[in-house]
Amino acid sequence: MQPSTPPFDERLTAPRSWWLIAFLVGIACALMLLPLGTLPLLAGLVGGTALAAVAVSSYGSARIRVVAGALVAGDARIPVTALGEAEVLDAEEARAWRSYKADTRAFMLLRSYIPTAVRVEITDPQDPTPYAYLSTREPQALVAALTAGRAQSPSAGV
Known about the structure:
The protein has 158 residues and is α+β, with helices and mostly antiparallel strands. The chain is 38% helix and 24% strand. Helix 1 runs antiparallel to helix 2. The longest helix is centred in the N-terminal third of the chain and has 22 residues, at 38-59.
């Protein structure tokens, strides 16, 4: 592995079925403009599909990375020194932690189409966030990267 390559990098892309739905939205827009003629129909097809595709793409652009001594999840950047234990959550546990076990103060990078997740304790006394819930398709790899990142951090033994 190259030194510049992050030990963990995952993009939470939207499922293929969502892209089909985006195309169907374009068809629906085209059909609404059918009475106005061929050009509006084509404009509705292209415009509706493009807008729906942008929405699907932006929702599926969230990334989780462990790089340079930090966990980067979406817009959040948390130093690994401020993280406690990471727990792999299977589909059933993940459902519980995003519903009745959830804390309103928690950071949630939640994608409903990804059944597994990781729950990471946040141990920073200045931060009221108790944990981060991260939807991921590779929970074991994320936990391993976080463990390795904490072991390599300069204040790991403090």
